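Final report, Chapter 2: Outcomes

The project's central promise was a pipeline that accepts a single protein chain and returns its three-dimensional structure in a standardized token representation, suitable for archiving and comparison. That pipeline is now operational. To close this chapter, we reproduce one record exactly as it appears in the project archive, with the input sequence first and the structure output second.
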Amino acid sequence: MQSGLVAYLDSVKSRDPAARSRWDVLFYPGVTALGLHRIAHWLWEGQLFFLARLVNHLARFLTAIDIHPGAKIGKRFFLDHGFSVIGESAEIGDDVTIYQHVTLGGTNPTTGVGGKRHPTLHNGVVVGSGAQILGPIEIGEGAKVGANSVVTKDVAPGQTVVGIPAKPVHVDAVHYSPGFMPYGTPCGEDVDPMRARLAELEEEIEELRRELKTLKTAGQPQPKVKSA
């Protein structure tokens, strides 16, 4: 058990350059919330719903992180800073990283598919701060969700999505951050697909203006040269 805790703390430390030691990581609110969730989930699985809810409320009071006792969370989960909400039927794989103010939200209970109303995050997913992932959708293995994105459709494995609504962007993630991309957002260039398209349109308009100016100049009558 001790070796498992040490391995977990080391996995968090490897994803957070601000962590000075394992002791630092041990007192992170996300680590505390996950530890209490393990207890609450065990009670929930044993149908001790009141006690599970009690532990859940204690965790939320201490950490400002609300993880429903029914949520299933894999190994080495890291929730940085906190202030996030994870719904009842959410499923999180191994080595997933979520930053602050993220919601794994659900659909209307009457329209959920077989009771599954919340998203599934597969192994190695990174979710940037402020992102909202809504409904029984799947975020594929190794996918990245950029900060403040709103995701309502499935995300393919290894894909990076940004924007409202979230759309895939063609970015070489390894180029910017080998092995791990903090906040799920590349920082080397503007990856918002809408702004990128607007920039392309502006360039096209400027090119058309230059061509029009050239045509106007060519069409103007040339001054006659008087012969000597």
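Archive annotation: Helices lie at 2-15, 22-26, 29-45, 49-63, 173-176, 193-219.
This record, like all others produced under the grant, will remain available to the consortium after the project formally closes.
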